[in-house]
Structures are given as C-alpha cells and as structure tokens.
Predict the structure.
Amino acid sequence: ERLQKLTTELADANEKLKGLDKLKSEFISLASHQLRSPLTVIKGYASTLTDGIVGDLTEKQKEVVQHIYISAQGLASVVEDFLNVTKIEQGGMKYVFAPTDIRQIVNDLASDMRIPAVAKKLDFQTDIHTDGAFMVNADGTKMKQVFLNLIDNSIKYTKEGFVKVWLNQKDGNMTFGVSDSGVGVSDETRANLFQKFGRGEGAVMNGGGSGLGLYLAQEIVQAHGGEIKVDSEGLGHGSTFSVTLPLIIS
C-alpha cells in the first residue's frame, strides 16, 4: 500500500513537472517572438544611419551606430537560438530536405567570413576540394546555420594565428571542418560541449552567446544522419570542429 502511494505521488509530480516544462517552453517562445520584431527594427534603423540615408555621420558617430548594430545582431542570434531549441523540445523543428551543393554553401560562407577574420588580423585559410560533387540530401538553410556557427566561433575565440575552413570527401561521406590556433578545448569541457548551455573555455573568457549554438548544431546534424565532433590537444592548442554527412551517390 505504501509503495502504491509513493508510485502515485511520483506520477503526479512527474505530470506537474511536464506541465511546468511546457509552460517554460511556451514562455520562452512567446518572449523570443516578442523580441524579434523590435530587434529587426533596431538593426534596420542602424543600417539606415550607417548608410547615410538620413544624412551623413561623422566617423565617431558611425562607430557608435555600428556597435549598436553588432549588439542587436548578437541578441537576435540568441533569440533565434532560443526559438530553435523550443521547436526541438516541442518536436516542431521542420526540415526541408533536397539535393544541396554543400561546396557552394561553404564557398559562400568562406567569402563572407573572411572579412571579420581579416579585421582581427587572422590568417584566414581555405582548403575546399574541387574534385567530385558535394551533393547532400539536406536542408540547406539549416546546414548553412551550422557551418556559420562553427566558423564564427572559431574566429571569435582565436586571438591570433589562423582559422582554416576545409572541405573534403571520402568513402561516400563529405566532411566540413574549421581548424584554428585558438583557445582550444579541455578534456573536461569536451564531454559537455554539445549539451544545452554547454560552454567552452573560449565562451567563458569572452562572455556573450547563448550556450545553445553547438547543441543546436548537433541536433541539426544528427537529423541529417551525420556526425559533429571536436578535436583538440587541450587549452592553448587550438581546435578542429568537423561535420560529416553522407553524400548522394549517383
């Protein structure tokens, strides 16, 4: 009788926790949606000011406005991460799979991300194989989000040295990777790095971020039947993040 009572109480407590978790997810989703619109407006007005559409700005004023834009963009990324995590938790993350040229995505991203890397005086390198096709059955938008996150992290947490974006294929799979001379990853951190709110040493030192980017990357990659991993010889020795996906075999 006592065991039956404890079992019933445990079941009731479990149902209450599920209800609270659902309310939490709904609140995060609502709050994130409410933040999305004003952030878009802030970014829009900041761009308008920077472009001189409403009048010329001094160099100092442009610098201030650029800081506003960058801060708004950073917060917008955090909001997007929260929205995506909520979708995953509620089973609502939708994928549109289609034959996708991964090499084209990586080439475009490498071209775009060279700018912030060079601005930090980093040696930005690419090694994107030109042999063979890099067609994958994928949601191109979401895979671009994964690759962008990895390149951005690498640039962000590398103070000096190099960042290298590479792409190759072997045994029916393609592998995208980002190697750097940045802060590296300790053995202790590696075990939790792809969990929700898992944060590496670089994130702790630099602050900011949601702690969700790598968790989301892993969820997206696994939904594509792929694998994401990190290799590092430890703190101060840089790291390599890589994503392996099955190629479409024609």
Remarks:
- Strands lie at 98-101, 123-128, 135-138, 162-170, 173-180, 227-231, 239-246.
- Residues 101 and 133 are 8 Å apart (CA to CA).
- Helices lie at 2-50, 59-89, 102-119, 140-156, 187-190, 201-206, 213-223.
